[in-house]
Amino acid sequence: MQGFLKDSIEFLPILLQGLRLTLIVTAGSLVLSTALGLLWALMRVSGVPILAGISKTFVNTIRGIPIIVQLFYIYFVLPDLGISLTAVQAAIIGLGIAYSAYQSENFRAGIEAIDRGQVEAAQTIGMGWGLTMRRVILPQAFKIVLPPYGNIMIMMLKDSSQASTITVAELALQGKLIASSTFQNTTVFTLVALLYLCMSIPLILLVGHLERRFGLR
Amino acid sequence: MPMIELDNVHKSFGANRVIRGITTHVSKGEVVCIIGPSGSGKSTILRCINGLEGYDSGSIRFEGIPVNRTAKSITAVRTQVSMVFQRFNLFPHRTALENVIEGPIFVKREPRADAQAHGRLLLERVGLADKVGAHPHELSGGQQQRVAIARALAMRPKAILFDEPTSALDPELVGDVLAVMRSLADEGMTMVVVTHEIGFAREVADRVLFLDGGVIAEEGPAAEILTDPRNPRTQDFLRRVLKPL
């Protein structure tokens, strides 16, 4: 135990650097995937066949390709096309796009769960499509999508470790590097696991709080 | 010129021909009740008037503006022709007052303070001055429907369409809603009401349309149609509605 504490003190500063990158990648891709996911979902329910078709094709394509392959594509293939990104940028964009497909399906389910009568009520007071979405549908859909959204946040936090495959020295990669140079596998990976857990728990609590706050009745 | 004109309107849902040539008109200040058996096209024709449903052929005009649900002009029609639904369709995430002022503020761009003052007045008028801050789930069906009527009135409409406004209510709550509707009629509001409340139609309507199989089977002054119908189908329908046992 004493050894574990001593090693921990030694390893933690390096792991915390990785944790910082994990948070950056997670936060960045969360924002990007939420914005893109909402865009796909709105296109899908827009009633405009071409927009709905583009959205559907995109979402199904993205869902059908492993995240790790998407990351490789963005980090290793795009430079051939003259677009070079830093590893962190590539990770944020890759995870953001990959997750936007799941976000979009969640948002769409929430939007489609709202009673048709709500749209009609909005229409009869003269609201157009945008106003109906903003004032009537999305505020109600928000409550429905919240629990699965929380789930997605936690999955993203963990999947940010896939950024290690394109050289982002986030928490998991830092752990692996320390472990392979010190052979303190138990200590290092226990710490890494605990640090992920420490980040997940606040997210779980936050979602629980929001669900109570917005009263799922 | 009549306010609302329907000319030979047809509408099908797939192979189901719901409206098969309806021609009628509603003048300013007139109260028209539409009665008829279920599936006769009552609600559909009402929903065509403000473009909630499209129609296949014929024409519908409101004050001369063609009602075309895909045209820009539909907003102008909808802000002048309000609608009250069977299932109220209040916005559950907003209070009674917020429901009422939503259209005036976001569609008609009235200043918030004016909209709120008008909204409070309207809620008071439908007997809900004390429910301004209540959410729909805290209100009874009858109260919700009266909020919905206040929401329709807040647009300062020229006409209001009522789609079976009391059919989803417990019997003891029907009276309050009908009383509000009667007072609107007394003030000269133009109203088209799809209803099963024959008593209300007899007392308040200027004219009654009896729909059957997607056509107007009989139409005329309320007293005439409801007490002395000519068409055997109207006679049969009224017998069933008035003496169900």
Automatic annotation (TrEMBL), chain A:
Source organism superkingdom: Bacteria
Keywords: Amino-acid transport, Cell membrane, Membrane, Transmembrane, Transmembrane helix, Transport
CDD domains: TM_PBP2 (cd06261)
InterPro entries per UniProt: AA_ABC_transptr_permease_3TM, ArtM/GltK/GlnP/TcyL/YhdX-like, MetI-like, MetI-like_sf
Keyword Transmembrane: yes
GO cellular component, one term: ATP-binding cassette (ABC) transporter complex
Occurrences of domain ABC transmembrane type-1 (ranges): 19-207
Major location category of this protein: membrane
Keyword Mitochondrion among record annotations: no
A GO term for molecular function: transmembrane transporter activity
A Pfam family annotated for this UniProt entry: BPD_transp_1
Segments traversing the membrane: 21-42, 188-208
Protein name per the record: Amino acid ABC transporter permease
Native species: Microvirga aerilata
